[in-house]
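Attaching the record inline, Q. Sequence:
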Amino acid sequence: MKGTIFHAAYASDTLRAGQTAELILSISGNSGIEVQKDMRLREWCLGSMEAEHNAAFIKAVSDWLVVSSFAELNKRLPDVATAIYEHDTTDMAEPFEEITNRLKGVFEDIAQSKFSNENSNILVVTHAFAIKTLLYLFAPEQLCAVERIKNTEILRLTYDEGKFHFQKWNVNR
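Structure, as predicted:
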């Protein structure tokens, strides 16, 4: 993203997301832009599954939903959130509707912000399950093409005539 001109920057209010946004802005030559931190860009709260190793997490959710592949879990993202919510012993996990509402809300707010126009580039730094949820909401046909969201994934979300679209996406390997 070196040389990309950003007009605004948003990040989850987590330390890692904020640091990532600052680094991207610095490397791209936009260090004068202040990162707006928004808790609505946070990762899903996994409740009692928080900090669980990926393999244990995937096995538990696969067992709960009786699925045999990660691709199938992608297709059933709302069910994944429901299973996590129903099996959570901490009462901290979020229902899928709350997750989608907060993510839709923050992106609608960003799209309506003073920084947004047809030629704006707005940096948004968030997390893997949040990105999967955005794909589910705005480009469900692309969700199954993404097995895992890796660190430093770059997705381009456009806003046109009141609708969001994933125009293209670039996976860094």
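Strands lie at 8-11, 35-37, 122-125, 154-160, 163-170. Residues 45-93 form one domain.

More tomorrow.
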